[in-house]
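User: Watch each token:
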Amino acid sequence: MDLTNSPYIATDTVYVANGVILTIEPGVTIRFATETALICYGTLNTVGNPTRTKLHSHQIK
């Protein structure tokens, strides 16, 4: 997931399948609707840096 297409809106649960790598680049925002989740059976890489930290949130506002 890249900053160019951010923010991403998850209106349903997102699954990362076994063997799949999901990389979330610095500064990317993902907003999840109520009662949704990110379920990862594969690999989740979240990348941060000093000017673009990581923030994990659970609800669309």
